[in-house]
Amino acid sequence: MSILPTDVLGQLEQQAIELPSWAFGNSGTRFKVFATPGTPRDPFEKIADAAQVHRFTALAPTVALHIPWDKVDDYSALRAHAEEHGVELGTVNSNTFQDDDYKFGALTHEDAAVRRKAIDHHLECIDIMHATGSRDLKIWLAEGSNYPGQADLRGRQDRLHESLQEIYARLGDEQRLVLEYKFFEPAFYHTDVPDWGTSYAQVAALGDKAMVCLDTGHHAPGTNIEFIVMQLLRLGKLGSFDFNSRFYADDDLIVGAADPYQLFRILVEVIRGGGLNNPDVAFMLDQCHNVEDKVPGQIRSVLNVQEMTARALIVDIDALRAAQVSGDVLEANRIFMDAFYTDVRPALGEWRESRGLPADPMAAFAASGYLQQIAADRVGGVQASWGA
Ligand code: PSV
Ligand code: MN
């Protein structure tokens, strides 16, 4: 028998990981953004690139948009373009972090006129979601303060609740709001949604269609992220993941690159809590490819998630439970580590081939000549980058 039993393969077959449109544009640090030949000039080209990831892996059927970066005149046309390329449009991300008016906050701002503008932006995002067929509105707020005493922490929390209430009230029956937390940056003393507890308190006060988004890069070093995953699943409030990995801050590196074992531990809790292939829990990437090629960077990312999911699925749960119940600490840990150390890559390759996919999607994509083709075709225009 393969190390991946049929029921495990059945679960892997259903796995879907949403790609961020911004991963296909140029990105970098505050020091330099390096351009690459063939980088998309508009959302249509970003979606064409994203479709390549799905074509070679069958893992990425949807693409998230960021507004206004992905603003177009005709969202139905963008939707049709996505469908022609074999993918669908996914989560709509709002953006209240690049406008001068938002220097001191958006949904929390002291000035009602600025709050109005920020709320209206979210209402526009919901209108876009109707045209694109998107279910989720993802809100990440770059709001906070840099110096103690600068801001009225309590007043901002109350205004956040009021603003979110108005946005929530506009959601359609099938739509959801997911509120992302982040403990620092761009504000460095406090942020208004710094942790899962604050996000949970805010979304719980809204209702069933509001959930927490967990970005794996948004925690202090050493945070036990899998514990948060367990707790949010237990509370029925884990709406989505933004997967990426970090060495130092919010590095937005390839998921599973910095700490594969952490990704394994997270996925074990996802499975334990019923979050795998559960429509309530969206798997998304939130990454930037600053120095590596973008399409293969995304292919590697979804494969990393798939591989670690396979390892998490082969944990011998019955034996683990028995060891836990009997207090056999070392045996429980051995069972856990056995699954983590199992090399599932050959079995996954064989399985992909049996489904008509390339055993090695990275190699197959490289051999396809796509990167050379877009470099030759996409001449002129302005490459998409931060802010476009
Ligand atoms: C913020 O760091 C974040 O994680 C949010 O998800 C944004 O929408 C995304 O990055 C892109 O800026
Ligand atoms: Mn994120």
From TrEMBL:
The Gene Ontology biological process annotation of the record reads: L-lyxose metabolic process; rhamnose catabolic process
| Pfam name, any one | AP_endonuc_2
Q: Which keywords does this chain's UniProt record carry?
A: Carbohydrate metabolism, Isomerase, Manganese, Metal-binding
Molecular function (GO) terms for this protein are:
L-rhamnose isomerase activity; metal ion binding
**Xylose isomerase-like TIM barrel domain ranges (all copies):** 73-220
Keyword Isomerase present in the record's keywords: the answer is yes
Q: Kindly indicate whether the keyword NADP belongs to this entry.
A: no
InterPro entries per the record? L-rhamnose_isomerase, Rhamnose_iso-rel, Xyl_isomerase-like_sf, Xyl_isomerase-like_TIM-brl
Q: Which PANTHER family match?
A: L-RHAMNOSE ISOMERASE
Query: What's the protein called, per UniProt?
Result: L-rhamnose isomerase / sugar isomerase
What organism does this protein naturally occur in? Agromyces cerinus subsp. cerinus
